[in-house]
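## Example record

The block below lists the input lines for one assembly entry, exactly as stored, with component labels intact.
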Amino acid sequence: MSDSNGHHASSHPGVVLLFGAPGSGKGTQGSRLAAQLGIPCLSTGDLLRAEAQQDTPTGRQLREVMASGALVSDEMVCAVVEALLERGAADHGLILDGFPRTVAQAKFLDRTMANMGLPRPTVLHLEVSVEGMVRRLTARRQCPKCKSIYNLISRPSLLGDRCENDGETLVTRADDNEATIVHRLEEFDRLSKPVIDYYQGPGYHRVDGDRDLDVVANELTDICHLAQLETRSFGD
Ligand code: AMP
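Predicted structure tokens for the full assembly:
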């Protein structure tokens, strides 16, 4: 489909940024959205956790920072995302879960995407109450192998304490304990406001994440389909 300038509508929604506090449902909604749109969803948290398992100085440093609930340095996380984009991860659409979390990261992403000729991202901000976040985080379980997320309250595994996909024993993430959760929420509050301000304007969407999972999922999919229709690119 071409417009009068000879541009054509992109056949994918471009880069979608899932923004929200820990426990806002980014992981769950990210994988549902990925299935709906047929594009991958990558979480910087998962990428960094994989790196943290390495027995290297960087791995050890990452383990320490992440277990405390603090953010990993902009330099380190931007390098991870830059490597992804350079490998072409966003060429056919990509959902990024948990990035950017600071204005420096947002500016870095804008520069990198502009240099690669990628259109501006669609930002989905999942907003939930503090009680909702703590409730979800303490009940969250994850498969250490395939990274699927379950929740003892809202989405228990049909196999009890085992993953439905591969039968691995589900684990509680090291940073999902109450003290660390409070630190992560404080960090998020402190750093998120400037990022939200940075993204105000077209392409930014605030979504009430306290509602039923399916209702939220449908709204996110609708926004992305609309963005897909509006996106014009020079071929893809
Ligand atoms: P998440 O799985 O998104 O909750 O992230 C878990 C942890 O990974 C965070 O508490 C941070 O330590 C680290 N992390 C993930 N994404 C970022 C990011 N964009 N910037 C800095 N640290 C991050």
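The longest helix spans residues 178-199. The chain has eight helices and nine strands.
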